[in-house]
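ok so heres the complex, two chains, lmk if somethin looks off
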Amino acid sequence: MVDVPLGPAGAVAPSDLDDVELYHPHSWVTKYVFSQDAKVIAIQYAFVALSVGLIALVLSWLMRLQLGFPGVFAFIDASAYYQFITMHGMMMVVYVLTALFLGGFGNYLIPLMIGARDMVFPYVNMLSFWVYFLAVLVLVASFFAPGGPTGAGWTLYPPQAILSGTPGGQDWGIILMLSSLIIFIIGFTMGGLNYVVTVLQARARGMTLMRMPLTVWGIFTASFMALLAFPALFVGAVMMLFDRIFGTSFFVPAIVEMGQPLDRNGGSPLLFQHLFWFFGHPEVYIVALPAFGIVSDLISTHARRNIFGYRMMVWALLAIGALSFVVWAHHMYVSGMNPYFGFFFATTTLIIAVPTAIKVYNWILTLWRGNIHLTLPMLFALAFIVTFVNGGLTGLFLGNVVVDVPLSDTMFVVAHFHMVMGVAPILVIFGAIYHWYPKVTGRMLNETLGRIHFWVTFLGAYAIFFPMHYLGLMGIPRRYHDIGDMAFVPPSAHTLNAFITIVALVVGATQLLFVFNLFWSLRHGRLAGGNPWHATTLEWQTPETPPPHGNWGKTVPTVYRWAYDYSVPGADQDFLPQNQPGITSVVPGASHG
Amino acid sequence: MGSILLFLGGLAVIGTWWLSRQGLASKPWLEQGAEGALPEEAPAPPYRVGLLILLAVIGSLFALFISAYAMRMQLPDWRNLPVPRILWLNTTMLALSSLALHGAKRAAERGEMPELRAYLLAAGISALAFLSGQLLAWRQLSGDGYALAANPANAFFYILTGLHGLHLLGGLVALGRTTDKAWRETTTERLRLSVELCATYWHFLFLVWLVFLSVLTGWAGGFVDICRQWLT
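and the predicted structre for the whole thing:
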């Protein structure tokens, strides 16, 4: 446990301490394994999340192989296919995107961007990572458990999730999945408390809330939402675990399983859907808000222009965060609920488009007449805007009850949410990694490999998901192992499926190029210096790169301005770091290397 | 889902009030200087803020359970289970525990170490008594044939009381450490924050328990009906 010195008012945040008083690791193990330094924890989170991402990527390949070339790969039977779908979905949404944005970027960027030395509860922060790691181990263990992982679909709808017809339903699969989620949520709560309290309590002098970079605003709002939304999944998981292990009937109605009536009655499958989506919809924005924040910073920095409408951007983030808690039932239009109910949720869903559109306008207006540098982070940020608008527009279709009902459970839904929640945030993650890798390692990522990675990923994602909308409009159902020869399915649909599969294999392989780049550039990348992008935010002004434990050397920075002073008239450079008092003094970050 | 929406609505009101004091309408691009737009206040201890946010998270967890309870109890197979009489004794124990911690907090503020130690011990013992009483209630109910899987009302009872007990057990770890510290320190100064946080946590768990009790006994039925009408 870290020794936090106690003053008369109680504990003092690490940011308020002199460097010598901060907890210091004494051995290799406490420095790199059981580390309490948020930056090391961030890298641990990112490494584990990206590894899980690679597993999930391979699972998507296997699914696509079956869909593109049904019957060719004998080992992908119906059970295996459902298991791949389920694990791919849950891994990507929870264990990759959430963990990477909040655990990875949150840990690295929050203390550095607000001028703190570390998170306020470093020990709890360390615990958060190891609990997350345990959750991942439990999840991955289900691949090796008798019966394999659960094949219930990533939404884990009961009663099928815990019955014997579903892979893993009566074996270990579902138990391990639910346990892993419960562990994940406990670990996330530890991390989330840290992110929120650090932003609230450990900001450097002069760093008012309205001077924080939008990245911090995004991660802060998303953490708060996650803290309040994940309990819904926790409750659902605990109750389903009781149904599965102890035979209670929370979710299982009177039912006949394999010809035998079960000893259950009265349970409500709908109750689980409410709980799941009460978590599930905010989860979309838990992933999206950090992406919104990061993209704002990437665009502003690489277009050398102050962010347009900063205040509106902050308000929009908060409005989206609040609204996202009252739209959950738009995932349940076909569950047989009251139509008036659907009308209410369609309205709230469409209202979210307003703050979201404000953000898109502001990004575009930031670019307008900016000095746009088409660097890798900028390319990914631009690709994000296009993709997010695309995915958002199909969201307007699905948000309306009458349009959703025929499109529900078709490939249209798969295409929509992969555009908006898969491709869009992952483009931001890539952009962010290209942007901050120089700070983390001191070296630039290889530009040529990066450009190949960008173009193949961006164009490839469209080649994969754009045609999928047409498949959906045609009525091709999702979650079918083999659509077979239906009268309404023309041969062209099969050709299109094969095409999508080939592109998916290529795009997936390109991600390996990116992973290679991450490791290759560690040694061979061009030296970056302290502030290669000439950015204003505090993380680029550290006295050393990569920043050591404690971040700031002897003195914590003082903040004199907001985060977006680019191209200020009269200034001798086109950017003014947040810790620079006047507009013409020496730029602290530029000379460090 | 009425309970959770009500709970989150309450949080939203508090959040909006707090945000309204943070200068969210300021124009940061026009402001320069280390003071920023707002006068710097002495920051509250992070542990206090951390606990308040943790309470919001735990509150949302229990509010969601109550939402699930309210939705599940509408279905025809629901059979309320009798409230064991020992629960009233348990409630008294938890109330005493909460009161003792309030006393401990006051003693810590006044700097009276012997009194503080006595209060901490009393709080710990009565909390343990509460937990033992809960276990007795479990035994009594299962002895009377109210098994976990027999009816959802039973299952909810065991889960809710179990989860509440686990949270109290977590609190007892913190209280144990504080009590241990109280025997090693000579002045109350370095204990003040820990005792205050324990007291806050205890009052919160007592409040949660009262809400549970009103739900389990059906007193909250009227309220639950209102929530139900919202959504059907």
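quick notes: Residues 152-184 of chain B form the longest helix (33 residues). thats all i got rn
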